[in-house]
Design brief:
The complex is a heterodimer of chains A (262) and B (333). Chain A is α/β, with parallel strands linked by helices. Helices cover 31% and strands 27% of the residues of chain A. Chain A is globular and about 55 Å long. The two termini of chain B are 39 Å apart.
Amino acid sequence: MSGAGSGLVAHGLELGYGDRVVSRGLDLALPPGRFTAVLGPNACGKSTLLRALARLQPLRAGRVELDGADLAQQRPRQVARRLGFLPQRMVPPEGITVTQLVRRGRFPHRSWRSVWTEQDDAAVRRALADAGVEDLATRRVEELSGGQAQRAWMAMVLAQETDLLLLDEPTTYLDIAHQYELLALLARLRDGGRTVVAVLHEVNQACRFADHVVAMADGRVVAQGPPGEVVTAPLVREVFGLAADVVPDPLTGTPMLVPHPV
Amino acid sequence: MSTSLSALVGRRYLLGCLGLVLAAAAAAFGTLSNGTTWTPPADTLAGLFGHGEKALVISEWRAPQAAAALVFGAALGLSGAVFQNLTRNPLGSPDVIGLEAGAYTGALVVVATLAGTSTQVATGSVLAGLVTALVIVLLSRGQGFSGLRLVVIGIAVNAMLTATNQYLVLRADLDVAIAATAWSAGSLNGSDWAELRVPFVLIGLATLALARVSRTVQQAALGDDLATATGVDLGRHRLVLIVLGVACTATVTAVAGPITFVALVAPQIGRRVTGSAGVPLLPAALTGALVLAVSDLVAQTATRPVPLPVGVVTTAVGGAYLIWLLLREVRRR
């Protein structure tokens, strides 16, 4: 799957809400087969960009292409077999169990009259195992803790078996151990050939797990490339307005941000 | 392990549906047996198949009413589930958001101005229901689609249409007004096969179309973002649902008048009985059939020998449910 075509590419996007323009003339190519972290301060347009890439945000101008074909011209189900998306906030249908939820990830693979297949069952089992929610399979989603529920939703998106995964702040509701577990899972998925794109807040985690970083500020892409080249003290100051040293992580050698005492 | 458990979830659903079917059939059998006195079950069965002295009464008078209760109840339950799914709100039901009142306005206008054949009334009713839905959707359009906004605006539209309907009845000729007043409570009394043919076909077609999109309905319950991300064309899906939901509710209204609260309660009872996630369509249809068949039996027997309009019974029971639901919704926010 890696290296298939040119991956997900945005050309000249203009995005906004009502009178407010969030981004204008935004171009971005997401390298296939890599784990890309999108970084930037609050309200810089990260989520809006991700939603636009996932067809959830209307484009005022420009287009999004997957392997050279315009997404807007393709059937929604066809796109959903290639591209999965996890939003920031989800509300489960009342009374749904984890397994029932994860099964709904198979929707784009089934026609209205098709029955549940072995293949669907295998995908659901794999997704439950990968997201670490096998032991929650029969629980109701509304009774789970925030972190457990987040992993259940993650399992649903995994069951969709797309080669592209777009995740909007997937670690937000997780405790620190589960954050690292989820990031390791994303890195494993990347190693298995999938393209992973995640909006992340924790710069150090992004540098450790992602192999491509997109830094955004004010609706623009300020810098992009491998974390070791992109994440520098001047960039952190420019993007986040934070004075910090960037030192090598003692365990992995990836950039590590140490903010200056105020 | 997961397979056997999912089979168990399926069994609860199947048993629930089966129970609803049997209970609805029993209520309908009650209607078949009900006259000035109860007909014994054996005679009722014989009469249904055209034997015995009661054959005409049972197959030509009572059977249409029993069938109307089942089919119209199912249509109302379906319509309720459709709009509760669309709005993602248990209050978003066609009787609460003004679609039944709108359909009834259409029916009244047709009766007052045209000859009022059953096809004319059904057409006027469906068209007025669609116009009402269009108005509510347009008024509730802001930044995107909001179920709660649609419900609140629908409640206001319902109040205005109810007032319009009263005005239309007051201004109508005396004979039309008398007929309309009995009709306005929602009644199945005096149904006959001839007037049921067209509505049954319409409801059957809408039901088939809904069966085809039922999995998409479930998927849309995940919320706009995830529904779109998993391949649902939400704009088209909503349009299809609105047309089919209005067709169900308006067809019933055209024949029986606005029977309120069945659409509101049936989907919620159905999903609890079958232990389902979200608001599934089939349990809502079966529960609707059960609720209307039981309500109609009560309406016929409570004040025997003079039957009540079934709408009086559904309103009394449903009103209590609505108060409970409103209190719960208010506390949740």
